[in-house]
């Protein structure tokens, strides 16, 4: 990537605290996007409406609609678990690849040292 913004980021990530915050935010966004996309795919595969998912999960329909359609969401783990269970899934931990650990884990640990 090129341009003034990426040049600034490239310089800023030399600071361990910035690198930690940047890595943490990057993985948070990626993980939430991945989970929400998977929930959307599961809902479509099951043929369930957002209202049906909400009723089954004991949630407000608007909350499920926001979770599955809003451009920015920050759901609780509890919400993700309940919606996933309604769709026949569970939320689990997955080990990062070596390259992800270098990109995410190492900057976070370096800042803590």
From TrEMBL:
Pfam families: HTH_31. SMART domains: HTH_XRE. GO terms for molecular function: DNA binding. Residues 39-96 form the HTH cro/C1-type domain. This is Helix-turn-helix domain-containing protein. The lineage of its organism: Bacteria, Bacillati, Actinomycetota, Actinomycetes, Micrococcales.
